[in-house]
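[recover] target loaded
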């Protein structure tokens, strides 16, 4: 029986999370934009770092890797096709990342859009999705088209509803504000606002979310709903109904919100 692993959020910068998978002895970190919070945690908990996983090349996700490697060489997994100087194991869709010391294995999913070759790690009912899917929102399409980003979100939406979603940032409350502008009558969204506002008032993370929860409350995953289409059309001042076009309208609206 593999021992159960814990997933711990370490805060970095203003609102980043470095998700840390650990057991009694070992740890692996996802998207360490900063090394200091990781080094402090490893020292305090007497844990050995065994792997680093990166979802995309942005500095607030990979900026701490070089310093972590100075404390000891470990494999660094990340997307093939993005400029990450510290990468040792370039991976892409369909590859598997096995963290033997932690008894867990992930499938790599290609989810481009936020960046050109952004990836997610999916396994053991967990999804680490960087800056592609956020709680009640999604990342900006910096290096891909909105259509590409929407196709990536559709891929994530197809995962089981109970999948735990570990996003790269604590953006939930601001995202809910936009979601309410799109779907003011979504009861699940209003309930989510209450529960997540409570968590934040206690300075607790609103994450992980679940795929089921996102499907019920995240406007970017609800672009086939009449209320969402109507709001997107009102914003655009013209009629669109094709999901990727509704998505693109929401993404543009959110950028200005
Ligand atoms: Zn990013």
């Amino acid at each position: 029986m593999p021992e159960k692993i814990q997933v711990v959020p370490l805060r970095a910068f203003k609102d980043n999370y470095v998700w840390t998978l650990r057991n009694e002895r070992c740890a692996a970190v996802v998207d360490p934009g900063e090394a200091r919070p990781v080094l402090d945690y490893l020292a305090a908990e007497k844990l050995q770092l065994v792997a680093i996983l990166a979802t995309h090349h942005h500095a607030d996700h990979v900026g701490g890797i070089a310093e972590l490697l100075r404390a000891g060489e470990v494999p660094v997994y990340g997307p093939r096709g993005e400029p990450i100087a510290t990468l040792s194991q370039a991976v892409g869709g369909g590859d598997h990342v096995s963290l033997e010391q932690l008894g867990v294995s992930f499938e790599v999913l290609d989810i481009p859009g936020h960046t050109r070759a952004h990836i997610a790690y999916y396994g053991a009912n967990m999804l680490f999705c960087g800056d592609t899917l956020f709680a009640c929102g999604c990342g900006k399409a910096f290096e891909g088209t909105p259509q590409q980003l929407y196709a990536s979100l559709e891929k994530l939406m197809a995962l089981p509803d109970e999948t735990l979603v570990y996003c790269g940032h604590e953006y939930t409350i601001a995202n809910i504000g936009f979601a309410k502008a799109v779907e003011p009558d979504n009861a699940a969204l209003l309930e989510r606002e209450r529960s997540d506002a409570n968590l934040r008032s206690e300075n607790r993370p609103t994450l992980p979310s679940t795929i089921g929860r996102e499907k019920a409350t995240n406007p970017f995953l609800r672009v086939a709903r009449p209320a969402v289409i109507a709001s997107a059309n009102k914003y655009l001042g013209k009629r669109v109904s094709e999901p990727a076009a509704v998505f693109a309208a929401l993404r543009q609206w959110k950028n200005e919100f």
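[recover] notes: The longest strand covers residues 6-12.
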